[in-house]
Amino acid sequence: MSPLAVCRVQDLGVGPEASRWLIEGLWADQAVGIVGGEPKCGKSFLALDLAVAVASGAPCLRRFPPTQTGPVLLFAAEEALPVVRRRLEGIAQAAGVAFASLDLHVITTPSLRLDLAEDRHRLQETVAALRPRLLVLDPFVRLHRIDENAVAEVVPLLAYLRDLQRTFATAVLVVHHARKGAAHVRAGQALRGSSELHAWGDSNLYLRRRGDALLLTVEHRAAPSPSGLALELRACGDALALHIVDLAAGPLPARATAPTALDRLEHALAHAARPLSLRQLRHVCRLRMATLCEALTTLRTEGRVLKAAGGYQLTPR
After folding, report:
1. CB distance 35 to 176 below 8 Å
2. What's the pLDDT at 235?
């Protein structure tokens, strides 16, 4: 039996800097990952916005430019095809690109089950023929009939998608739902099913609501992540698309009424120039001491807040 192939680290190839990103700051080149969030948070709109960016060269969310463009392959299992077309037309209009020019291909086969060998083979043949820069699968729950909580069942599906990425040099984006009642855990930990889904992603985007505010969190395996962004689904004529909302530091968005204790605490720490003591937090947040301590315990357990000299602060990203 022959030994494994090895080489000195100095002999490893060095890729060009430009190839680090598919969409600058938002999605790494040839990355696999998740667009996750609770129901009705705009996950599909965000996935389609990324698809339009790669297929056209227009900046995603009107801010993040793609560094590479090319064909996009989309499977949208939960929407009727005319709805998919209208959404893409609206995003293209908002992005200022001609809908007819999009290099975007939609799988019209009604069912795709990646736990079935035949469907895996058919998808692989489709990817091999089209060679997309980006493959979008929306949502994960419609791609299988496995137990999403069983690691032994989830891992083979994720391994298959990783193999597609490596074989055909394509990025793979999977839309996935968050668990109910997980609004106050870290975004990746809120994903439904096995923790392998969070660990699998090279680039992950998470949407969640705080009051009426829609917040986007970005995670990368091997690159700094941009700070959280506020988004809104905005209509401009017949065009419906997500847009970034520029919020100045200060009060919570006016529509985000009745913030929770966790909201108040995180907001106070985010806008503090130095760590805050319990007494200072109680005064700023206007919370009972018992409620404040309970919220602090929750955020510290989740790794979002840490105890520092002089008080408490948000965990550095």
Report:
1. yes
2. 86
Q: Which CATH number fits domain 261-314: 3.30.70.1350, 3.40.640.10, 3.40.30.10, 1.10.10.10?
A: 1.10.10.10
Q: Which phi and psi (to 5°) does residue 10 adopt?
A: -65, -20
Give 264-275 pLDDT, tens digit per residue.
888 788 777 788
Domain boundaries, the chain: 23-245, 261-314
Which pair of tokens denotes residue 86? 């209208």
Q: Are 195 and 242 in contact (CB under 8 A)?
A: no
pLDDT < 50 regions, the chain: 18, 248-258
Dig out the tokens for 14 from the structure: 């060095």
Fold of the domain spanning 23-245: Rossmann fold (3.40.50)
Cα–Cα distance between 43 and 185 in angstroms, integer?
A: 18
Q: Phi first, then psi: give them for residue 89, nearest 5 degrees.
A: -60, -40
Pairing relationship of beta strands 171-177 and 305-308 according to DSSP bridges: unpaired
The one-letter amino acid code at 108 reads T
172 within 8 A of 50, measured Cβ to Cβ: no
The confidence score (pLDDT) of residue 248 equals 46
Alpha helices (H) along 108-150: 117-130
Residue type, 216: L
Cα separation of 37 and 41, whole Å?
A: 6
- Residues in the chain, total: 317
